[in-house]
Design a protein that fits this description.
129 residues, mainly beta, 43% strand
């Protein structure tokens, strides 16, 4: 059985002795980074979310997909301008052919990207890309 404590939970045996301890943790991400002043943005290895707030297309440089397999990144735009990658290895949500498009020129468009070790794959997006 489990018995909750202030910092976790004790796993107890049937006679009530402690068998193990589970620590509770909070999953957290770094705060979003906002790009509003430049038409290019290099995503830092510590960035988990990028907001594009610029009145023109923003070209992003993502971390190398092969260096960060499994890495997740959220990108959204709050102006009706496209967001593109500077290389052709973004796989859209609607096909398997890699290209440069990340977001269409739509206010509030967003995408959730995951590195598969070769490409950045758009796993979810609105609108679909």
């Amino acid at each position: 059985r489990l018995e909750r404590t202030a910092t976790g939970a004790l796993k107890l045996t049937s006679d009530g002795s402690v068998y193990g301890f589970l620590t509770l943790a909070t999953l957290s991400r770094t705060p979003p980074v906002t790009e509003s002043g430049s038409n290019t943005h290099t995503v830092a290895v510590t960035t988990t979310s990028l907001i594009c707030d610029r009145g023109a297309t923003v070209t992003v440089t993502l971390p190398t997909a092969s260096s960060f397999p499994g890495r997740e990144l959220y990108i959204k735009t709050i102006q009706a301008f496209t967001v593109v990658y500077n290389a052709s290895n973004v796989v859209p949500s609607t096909s398997a052919t890699a290209g440069t498009a990340i977001l269409p020129a739509t206010d509030g468009a967003w995408a959730f990207l995951v590195s598969d070790g070769t490409n950045w794959v758009i796993m979810a997006a609105n609108p679909l890309v």
